[in-house]
Amino acid sequence: MDSAIRTSSLRKVYNSAPPAGAGRGEGSAPGGKRGKDSKPQITALDGIDLEVAPGQIFGLLGPNGAGKSTTVGILTTRVRPTSGTAWIGPHDVWRDQTAAKLLIGVVAQRPNLDFSLTAREILLFHGAYFGLSSQERSERANTLLERFKLTDRANQLVRGFSGGMMQRISIARAMMHDPQVLFLDEPSAGLDPQTRLLLWEIIREYNQKGRTILLTTHNMEEADALCQHLAIIDHGRIIASGTPGELKASIPGGFLLRLRFGHHSLPLLERLATLSGVTEVRASGESGADLYASRGGSLIPEIVNAASALGVELSDVHISEPSLENLFLHHTGRSLRE
Amino acid sequence: MNWKTFLALLARDAHVARRNLVPLLFQTFLQPLLFVFIFGRVMVGSGYMPAAYKSLLLPGIMAISMVFTGIWAVAMPLIGEFQFTREIEDRLLAPINISWVAVEKVVAGLIQALLTGLIVIPLAWLILRPGLELHLANPLLFACITLMVASFSACGGLALGCSVDQQHIGLMFSMVLTPMIFFGCTYYPWSALRNFPILQKLVLINPLAYASEGLRATLVPQFPHLSLPLILVALAAFDVLLLVVGLRQFQKKAVT
Predict the structure, then answer these.
(1) Does the structure show a pLDDT above 50 at A26?
(2) Which residue ranges make up each domain of chain A?
(3) Rounded to an integer, what distance in angstroms lies between the CA atom of residue A92 and that of residue A292?
(4) A252-321 classified as CATH 3.30.70.100
(5) ipTM summary value
(6) How many CB atoms lie under 10 A from the CB of residue A198?
(7) pLDDT tens, residue by residue, A128-185
(8) Is A252-321 in the same CATH topology as A5-248?
(9) How far apart are CA B180 and CA B110, in angstroms?
């Protein structure tokens, strides 16, 4: 198997509102057009090429509505691509769905549990759908319930579970048939910090068995902590990819100083660009500037001096160290949280 | 086709049905039996209806019970499972073509409808006993028609369940199911509409009319009924049509 997951020129245009959890948010319509039948057309994916090596934890990082869930949807047979192809291992997902489905486990963004069943039954029936023997099903279900700390609630209907518990049983279910490739769409959304750490540990453990994991997140810390390879996605396009280290190293200067002044002046920006260690200065809004530099706090006195020499007052400054947040900001001009 | 997966999907539905057995029994049998009691026992016993009405009523009640059960058993879970919570997702991700997930729903509904039909007969017989005249002349034909009725009800459930949103369930009952029952030749034979010639033609678009008349033709052939070839062709046509429409709607709902 050359790659565990591969997509080529993947495009998806929704003719109606995208499903919940995929391409939401107003910012998701870069190509917002009206078709001839006057239905709004929303371009969720605009030519996505991905390649994930077997045994990798791959992160798809981006804000809400960037196209993460749509990408996962296409790779897991749930969203039909408008054009382009997607493969899981050797199988073209949309030509050989059943073979692709045998290789994958999927955790959707929102829990989609079978509410008519108990936690244990959810695992047992999932195992049965994948043809596991009754003994295998029972053993695996017990191990997973134990691992996800759900043994004491195993025989209760999941209808009454808390959000965090539903998320845990969803992940346990996806692991039940021991898939080669595990998709986790925003796996730690809504989890308390303790459960999040448990989840990270379980994901790493699963990866150590040689399994491939693709997870989406808008949490930089999670991407940084878990992923061996990242692709940053925005408006349906991959804007950067590499290891977290490589990506962070690609930010000019490394440090980001977000400055706010009493008012703006072009000469000030020019002056700031000449300060030592500064690699790039960008105007931001009416009276702000983003400054990429190789040092942080030690630049402040020089900035203050430069500003007051031109009669401008520095009103606010925020220094951040090299991070994926800065990277995203650098590539898109927007914060991940915006 | 992956039989292991298909059988596991069926086992899941059987398990859920077993868990809800008591409410399911009340939901399925209470209304038809009350109907049988009031119309077949009270009305006939008090002389407002002729004694023969008992025998005429039973096939109609059987048809209603089966059709309601089949539609309900397939449509209601589907409407819920395709909602916001997407409960069906795990089954759509099972290693089987998703059309088989829909077919499994139809098979589960069909089995429930068949069981209902076969249980309603003895239950109604207990209530109507003296004076009920059933003549099962051709058991094979009866089995064939019962099977076709069960399958059109389950296929209808698939088509409805994948076309109706949760907020429109009430509308589905008042706009589709209620007219279907009253214009389904259930409480009266088709020939009773001869004084309403337009209505008599119109009810022929209602599959329940063929179900009632078909069961009447095989259980109580002493009463007038539609011709058997017409009944068989119409039921077969509705089975195929509703299955095709249902599968198409299911695909639309299942894949974005």
Answers:
(1) no
(2) 5-248, 252-321
(3) 43
(4) yes
(5) 0.86
(6) 16
(7) 999 999 999 999 999 999 998 899 998 999 888 888 888 899 999 999 999 999 999 9
(8) no
(9) 19
- The rounded distance, in Å, linking the Cα atoms of B88 and B255 is 12
Q: Which residue has the tokens 């949490």?
A: A219
- Give the architecture (CATH level 2) of A5-248: 3-Layer(aba) Sandwich (3.40)
Largest CA distance in chain B: 60
Map residue A290 onto helix, strand or coil.
strand
The tens digit of pLDDT for each residue in A102-131 reads: 999 999 888 889 888 999 999 999 999 999
To test the contact with chain B by mutation, choose from A116, A121, A130, A133 the residue with the greatest count of B C-beta atoms within 10 A, namely A116
Count the residues in chain B.
256
What's CA A249's distance to the chain center, in Å?
Answer: 20
The reply to whether residue A104 touches residue B84, judged by beta carbons under 8 angstroms, is: no
Closest Cβ–Cβ partner in A104, A110, A112 for B90: A112
Residues of B at the A interface, defined by Cβ within 8 angstroms:
2, 4-5, 8-9, 11-12, 15-16, 19, 84-87, 89-98, 255-256
User: Which residues of chain B does A115 touch, with a Cβ-Cβ cutoff of 8 Å?
Assistant: 85, 87
- A277-311: b or e for each residue (b if 16 or more CB lie within 10 Å)? bbeebeebeebebbbbbeebeebeeebeebbeeee
Dihedral angle sign, alpha carbons of residues B124, B129, B131, B133: positive
Q: Which two tokens stand for residue A267?
A: 């000469």
Taking the model in full, what pTM does it have? 0.81
